[in-house]
Specification:
mainly alpha, about 85% helix, globular
Length: about 400
């Protein structure tokens, strides 16, 4: 029963985070238009990308490694701080230098990047102790604070990209503060600078960071390609389709987070049994995606127009549903292989299917294809990677044991 409660908590926590992202992006679309949504999507994509780096290097490492060993904990702290600070500086500098944002907005963007990364580490620290319902609480706090910032700014009559980035940053800061309070006492401490743990964390975390980096990096590249080869408005309209499919994506992401922690904890079960469990999880997640996707397609004509002013293209929505189904078919196998020590091989396969996806999308756009085919193209490349992880890594491992 506790496992089911944890799984529901994982879905709830991911759902709350997705609801916050969904609401903010709908508000951006309604107030700043699709051009504004395109710019915000690029900025938010960078935040997610950096959070993925922190989640892989620090978050996954603290789940699998002995995080209470002082040298390891010190290394985890240092990696978290370095990722947040470096990414914030680079993001703000590039955003200002490229002309995408003015100086003040770029600074706020950098702050949001840093806080987003640190909040992700806090979420993973709570997850490591199966505190998924506590994760949901800090995500709720983030959501409420972000909405408060947007609401107060709207009353003052000054909604802009700066305001929405400030709302995200304020929400992440609130979540980190509440997370500190909700951490179990045995986790609520830091250690001083120590040597000896960096190699341990790096050897495991670098591959997981790379893997976590791949999907948001790919989406950022795809948004940039669409902006350059089509328009910023096309990026915004395509992003609206992705946001509309968020309810299906959140279920997949939440259960995947639970599976990774569960696989790491369940070290005494034979790999063949875990593989059967991963197979069942894939079937469940894909089925859930199809059911939710069918509901979303049915309500698209009126719900899409209500949320975004203009309904996203049906082809794009179906494509994003297919892409979410491909994630459902990939993530459980990747999590199991990474817990089994094959994180480097998983990264290699996922890197290959990411390059394949970018190549496919580039070919479609350069050939003059419709932008709305992009999500389906991504799904085709993603499913290849998932099948490769199962048959090239997990099946041989299970036979060997």
């Amino acid at each position: 029963m506790s496992g089911k409660r944890s799984a529901l908590g994982a879905m709830g926590s991911q759902g709350m985070q997705a609801l916050a992202s969904f609401t903010i992006q709908v508000l951006v679309a309604r107030t700043l238009g699709f051009d504004g949504l395109g710019a915000f999507a690029i900025a938010y994509g960078v935040m997610v990308l950096v959070a993925g780096l922190a989640s892989g290097m620090v978050g996954d490492s603290l789940v699998v490694l002995e995080r209470r060993a002082p040298p390891v904990r010190s290394a985890l702290q240092q990696f978290a701080g370095a990722i947040a600070a470096t990414a914030a500086l680079l993001s703000a500098t590039i955003a200002a230098a490229s002309g995408l944002m003015d100086a003040a907005t770029a600074v706020m963007f950098g702050a949001g990047v840093a806080l987003f990364a640190l909040e992700e580490v806090m979420r993973r620290l709570l997850m490591a102790g199966f505190g998924f319902w506590r994760v949901m609480m800090i995500d709720f706090a983030s959501f409420v604070v972000a909405l408060a910032v947007v609401g107060l700014s709207a009353l003052a009559g000054s909604l802009s990209l700066f305001v929405f980035l400030a709302a995200v940053a304020a929400g992440q800061l609130a979540a980190i503060s509440l997370g500190i309070v909700l951490l179990p006492r045995e986790e609520r401490y830091i250690v001083g600078f120590m040597r000896g743990g960096h190699g341990t964390v790096f050897r495991y975390g670098i591959w997981r960071a790379g893997q976590q980096f791949l999907r948001p990096a790919m989406l950022t590249v795809i948004r940039t390609l669409v902006t350059v080869l089509a328009s910023l408005a096309a990026t915004g309209l395509l992003e609206a389709g992705r946001v509309f499919v968020a309810p299906a994506t959140l279920a997949v992401s939440g259960l995947s987070s639970y599976l990774f922690v569960s696989f790491a904890r369940d070290s005494n079960t034979a790999l063949s049994a875990k593989l059967r469990r991963a197979d069942r999880a894939v079937l469940t997640l894909v089925g859930l995606t199809v059911v939710i996707g069918a509901v979303l397609v049915a309500v698209l004509p009126w719900a899409g127009a209500l949320l975004f002013g203009t309904a996203p293209e049906l082809l794009a929505v179906i494509g994003w549903i297919a892409y979410t189904a491909s994630i459902a078919a990939v993530t459980p196998y990747g999590a199991l292989a990474a817990v089994g020590g094959k994180q480097a091989t998983v990264f290699a396969i996922r890197a290959a299917d990411t390059v394949l996806a970018i190549a496919f999308v580039s070919a479609v756009l350069l050939a003059g294809g419709d932008v709305q085919w992009v999500p389906a193209t991504l799904a085709a490349a993603s499913i290849v990677g998932g099948l490769a992880i199962r048959w090239m890594i997990l099946v041989p491992m299970a036979r060997a044991t």
